[in-house]
Amino acid sequence: MDAEGVPEVVVGVGWTEATAGRSAAQLPPGPVAEVVASRTPMILPSIRHDPRFAAAAAQHWKPDTEVAFLCVPIEDHGEVIGTLSVERERHRPVRLEEEVRLLTMIANLVGQAVRLQRLITRDRERLIEEQARLGKLLVRSGVVPPPEDVGIVGDSPAIRGVLDKLRMVARSNTTVLLRGESGTGKELFAQALHRLSPRKDEPFIAVNCAALPESVLESELFGHEKGAFTNAGALRRGRFELADGGTLFLDEIGEVPLEMQVKLLRVLQESEFERVGGIKTTRVDVRVVAATNRDLAHEIEAGRFRKDLYYRLNVVPIHLAPLRDRTSDIPALVKHFIDKYNRRLNKKVEGISEEALVMLQAYPWPGNIRELENLMERVILFVEGARIEQKDLPGPVRGGGAVAAVPPGVTPKPGETPLKDFLKQRQAEIEKSFIVQALQKTEGNVTRAAKLLQISRKSLQTKMKEFGLRDESPPTED
Fold first, then answer.
1. Considering the entire predicted model, what is its pTM?
2. What is the CATH number of domain 418-466?
């Protein structure tokens, strides 16, 4: 029965998918509904004069033919999940009670088959969920590598949120706009989107729009014909053609001149363009990912960026958090850079001291990940010991030493050094940052935030009270 109480025919004898609809229309809902409600079989010795069966009688039976209707419920643990019905011609004496018993036996078998299928489906779903949970635990513990290496280092809520969005949009051709401060690794995230997409085996082409003079930008993007301008000695394909079938990353899109913005809008909308100096229209299949560190809304108001191009680029905007807002990723990034520059510089640095790592986490990183990587390369190049210590870090990061790095107003407790007290404060700040990001992601839902953080709801509520987060915005409990 559907939501309106009308029988839905699942299977029948003597009809195909083409005739099933007609058979369903002729099945009388009244008698079937009675069987469902009463959970008992129904025997109608003759339907010839029953108006509920007029359509079926006229369609299938000759006038004056005696036809019986038998219907039994199909049950699963006391729940009626369907019915089994038969219309049969009584051209000879039959014992309808015996036939109902046979139908009931068949209905019981059907019910058992449905119950078994439900159990299999439920167990399969449970196994899939358990497999996913165990897989995440194995990845976090380092026993197995991540299922997909997309080149992004870090596991903070901010990073996981961005990767979740990238996975959601990866299979489409939708344009993505990456927004964030300079040095946040926008090209790496564009590459991650490409690797997650069906285009991963096709070209990934990157263009820094700010690095190209206005006079050559059009030729770089769309190519040029032989003789189109001085020194154009041969036909040259542009970046859009080179990225055909794959992904084109347009970095610093806010730097593109207005005249070029018109041509970009056309290729984004129509997937076609002409080379410089040519008249032949070229069509391409390209997924465009753009990036900017500018406030494009402000650029529109200032008349430096076209509103229609902004709307075309901003279909899926993704914000990349600065490094100072995801300091929990710094240990993983530091390890990554140590491994990278050990290989590149032929060094054997084993790691970094806890004190030095805390100083890196306390530094605001105005240049974001790019600044951290440059610093790590320089430190690894000149470090003399087996691991990086406080003394190996540059002055701006050390702040004059461990004691000077303790924030103003922090008074060490008896038996504690200033650095240990500072470590505790940094741990609390990091915990608070994790909780704030989890609550933002779950729109203040405490239960879902606790699940995301993999702690109990009671522990989360205690931490929220400790950090004064309950006073900032009333969270929801369910």
1. 0.54
2. 1.10.10.60
